[in-house]
């Protein structure tokens, strides 16, 4: 029996349905992988902050939850190839003077186009000066940009 953890609180990747069951892309992926491997699996919700300690304590055999792979995590666990990506974006009120931010609709990858991303940030910087920007706590968007 392979024991798998997911968060159950990060839609559309994983979420908890009103009846308490887990749903989302990662739950569908989990079901497909277990079916293809022809093995028994058990999926359990686990708070994101407790996933890595629970994995290291042997509570789970695997984690299936959208997670970046910074060196600190790679030092204590092995990662597969990425099965998806979600970029970071700005969201503003439709009435905001920032509704027409420069570079709207464009994506920049720090992995493949660091120069393009740096140029876009340089253009945006004056527009964002003095603004308050909120980010999700303890996620990759919280880390300050490299300087």
Characteristic key phrases:
about 150 residues; alpha/beta; D-Maltodextrin-Binding Protein, domain 2; 2 domains; three-stranded antiparallel β-sheet; about 30% helix; about 15% strand
Structure report:
Strand 2 and strand 3 form a beta hairpin. The chain is elongated. It folds into two domains: about 70 residues, D-Maltodextrin-Binding Protein, domain 2 (3-Layer(aba) Sandwich), CATH 3.40.190.10; about 55 residues, no CATH class. It is built from four helices and six strands, in the order ββββαβαβαα. The chain is about 30% helix and about 15% strand. The chain has a three-stranded parallel sheet with strand order 5-1-6, with helices on both faces. A three-stranded antiparallel sheet has the order 2-3-4, with helices on one face.
Number of distinct beta strands:
6
Task: Give the overall pLDDT as a whole number.
Answer: 85
SSE topology string: EEEEHEHEHH
CATH architecture descriptor of the largest domain: 3-Layer(aba) Sandwich
Q: What global shape is seen?
A: elongated
Report the structural category: alpha/beta
Task: Evaluate the radius of gyration.
Answer: 19 Å
